[in-house]
């Protein structure tokens, strides 16, 4: 199927919606239902659903379905909205795909709780074709776990993307908002196909010109982009500058308790909604890494967020308020300071003070998107506050979309973590969706990994992360295996061996990346600024609060209550005890929580030092293994995609070798102890 | 005296030409000669000399001298050009200041070998007034040591200055050449007053737009700037892009043996000289840090440089060719690789192959402007090649004009180094001025430290480096003491106690900076990119070839012939042996040449480790001492200058503390050995 985008189409451009691949997988017995699409609903989003279904059918079965609004007793696919029997206006979005075969009726019915749900049902049906499901297996009933399934674009008006590794922005170029709506439409389609329903259009770090997005200067054009997303059931948010009242030259203060400031934001909200009636709200990074915020005026984050929330409430908008607040001028000399404690300390005292249309956006871990971190202890500690968990789809610390790193493996750990906040089985995913503490909304947010690169995500295999993010945001109970194999099948076809190989590559990739980078949860062995490649001491004496404290005898951060920073005490009792004690602390987080001697013996029987050596040698071997598997797929994969990924594996191997050698040499120089298996470590 | 610049004048703007200060120092008995300036010469530069002399007299004695062209038997100052009795067209620039008092004649005669020399004589006379010399002491006869006394501006057309710490460029702003000639004129005056006679107007890294400087697009404006310098006897050079024939879109190659390329450069030279008849030539950074060069075409540097020299020869121009050529993609694993060896290896084989109007510009040390390095072994090894030694006046690695660091102390070491190339007393200064090997030209080049900051050099005390550079380029035999106290007197007046204090601060400053930064010649403990502040491992695993190899037992680079990289063998025999052996190697360069155990005992009786601790503690104490001395001068110094320097000392102290703590902790963590004097080192 041809894509709408106006760029030269890369074979990976259609991502997991590759109907050429679907052709081979799709069950031919379903074709007969595809001649007619029956629907009585008239709405923008259902219209999209019909178009998407038609395009898919055409692409897969080479027939052009007819749209009908009356049942003519012919096999068809019917799209309908379920009648809402409950009085619950907060009904959860869901859809049903049924095969009805009785008397004169033989049809597939895709029904949803609302127009968006119908669209999701259609996409799910299309996926079923790609997955080769038979008519007997396509039936399903699904409800989303989360109200908020949100993408954050870190795109700047300049066209740069902060921490972007996939080319330039598709939204902005050279200081202007793009008019290439075709590409944006293609993106909206991809997002909607995996269930995303919100997108923040600009970087959380709001620079001067972007501050004007909320004015007449930019709203007419943003409205057009919003309309594209709206067709796909996706509502837009904007990142706003807390100091906008000052920066836009209207006021001398941004104090949230100031009447003029409040009026400014009310007027701003009114203006935005006059352009974009389904505008979703604001995302705010305040008092963080030098961005302005309520602290400037002696106010707290609740006062700051609530003020914005009041302005948006009349329109049904929300404020998404980031909790990435910490002291970025730390003193490395002071071992009692702990950046990991900051989010909890800043926000737990405010629990219960946030208005109902405020949502806190909390990074999955207490530090910053490292390859392995414990869950942020804010989850489970905020009982009266709406929350979303923030993941980073873009591979800032995890390989820049050069190295393969399937991130659902990491995200699942967070989502399935038992906070023990209300007894056993108090999972993070039930905290953020509001179930555990009966909060009104919540969900999952992810920092996008796409740009204008021909395959969207630079590395075509990194599409699996965008796919997986969407799927998990819809249903966090999905397994990584299912996500990976579903993605591989939809993208590369249903050849069992191929799917199995790629699935295995994906599932192993996160641990491989961990093997050759940062051991045992310590993190931060990375080059400052770029965050790619090794630099063990790169952050060690910096002001960022990110240390490992390696000396000749040991390494790690003592975060215990007994002798350390006390961070472990931010977890609920069972978890606090688990992390507090070396015996019960999960070994893959040992150095996150404890300063340990190199000769401490792990459960594997290896010392920590030998574990570091082993993993770094193994990491490189594993990358070679990944290369080999990929090379074995040459005949199965489109040659362009094959070569592009192949090239990235070459770079990954180079990177892995550099990591191995730098890290091993670093610890060899620190300890003087050679590898016990006699492998060469550079002196 | 009012300055010509159009900026709000900072009290430090006039630098060492501060006539308000001179007023108090100047001998009143000289005043009587100052009513008349007698000269029969009519030339641009002598005209400048007359103007400068008049302005100085007016500023100092408040009288306006009359210019006369006949001797009327009144006391006067006479400016004249000495008759050249020798047939030597290569006569060395020099001047004489004489007091003639016989019969009816009572005058001061300032005569020079040429018009520029007259100007230098006038400036020297003016300085004498500022130094409070009596009529009996002003007599002097001076010849310059060096033909080339050259400033390199690393200014970009954007207005940025590479490694500039004094604001923006005074030559360029926002992609345009400035029209603020007044400020450039003031700069020319300062340079000329200390004997500078060449200036390179643009960065050695020639970016795309600057490549067009040699075209009609920019030459009309560069011509105007050249004219300003010309008035002060300073000739301009331009840094050129070796790939200009390609970049300017004329040719598909820049191969120096290609006829079209040769024609391109001939035509370019013709064009430049049609605009700027006294144009001095080109500065070229080729095949260095990714800049293009002859290697691209399988040619060597002699072929590259000679091709350009041929183009310039008809006009009397020269090619200054930088020797900063090394592999910047080194592998840290390979301890036999040694960046220090690169310049020698690249250029010694070419000795004798460069044309007579080519001059090699060689950095003082073999690495890159570290606080302490040995002399570059190229000096003394090139016997048939014109050379200039390159110093960095701008404080890239030496404190960014925040920290006080009087660099003549460092430069003198290089200039006075005995290369042993032709027996004892084969000093570097005699290599570069051409005396030792009878080469035809040579001298000293320095990377400028000025910008549009109100005091020119950011830190007003950094003016001493510009002054000292000029003075040394004129006469490298001057002592640091003399330079420092002359500068202090001219700048701050002749109060003996004040001058002594400031002189001592300057003379101590380089070792203080060394104390709290990199010990024993090792270098590179600095933050990559910025080159300010500590980062001991910052370059340790990089591709820059700049390592210290610290492990738990020792530190340093083995550059011996016996067991190391063999770099010591690039020195002439005595020096090679001196550096080769630990016993004879100067201790302040010990770690540059040898990998040493921490417990090695230095002549001081301290181990290397304890030496590192001691020096870092001492460095901070000494900065506190500098602060105290400066504070004691509050009543002696203009309040604006006082406060500005005071603020910088506060920043320097912060920097010194950070260096002390990071370096000491680094080695404490490496060794586990505490300070033997019991001072606290952060763990």
Automatic annotation (TrEMBL), chains A, B:
UniProt GO cellular component terms: extracellular region
InterPro entries: A-glucoronidase_C_sf, GH, Glyco_hydro_67_aGlcAse, Glyco_hydro_67_aGlcAse_N, Glyco_hydro_67_C, Glyco_hydro_67_cat, Hex-like_dom2
EC id: 3.2.1.131
Residues in Alpha glucuronidase N-terminal domain copies: 15-125
Active site annotation, chain numbering: 289, 368, 396
Domain Glycosyl hydrolase family 67 C-terminal: 457-679
Domain of life, per lineage: Bacteria
A single GO molecular function term of this UniProt record: alpha-glucuronidase activity
Gene3D superfamilies per UniProt: Alpha-glucuronidase, C-terminal domain, Chitobiase/beta-hexosaminidase domain 2-like, Glycosidases
Gene Ontology BP terms: xylan catabolic process
Catalyzed reaction equations: Hydrolysis of (1->2)-alpha-D-(4-O-methyl)glucuronosyl links in the main chain of hardwood xylans
Pfam families tied to this protein: Glyco_hydro_67C, Glyco_hydro_67M, Glyco_hydro_67N
Record-linked SUPFAM superfamilies: (Trans)glycosidases, beta-N-acetylhexosaminidase-like domain
Record keywords, A-Z: Carbohydrate metabolism, Glycosidase, Hydrolase, Polysaccharide degradation, Xylan degradation
Domain Glycosyl hydrolase family 67 catalytic as annotated: residue spans: 132-456
Self-association and partners: Homodimer.
Family: Belongs to the glycosyl hydrolase 67 family.
Protein name per its UniProtKB record: Xylan alpha-1,2-glucuronidase
Organism: [Clostridium] cellulosi
Gene symbol of the encoding locus: aguA
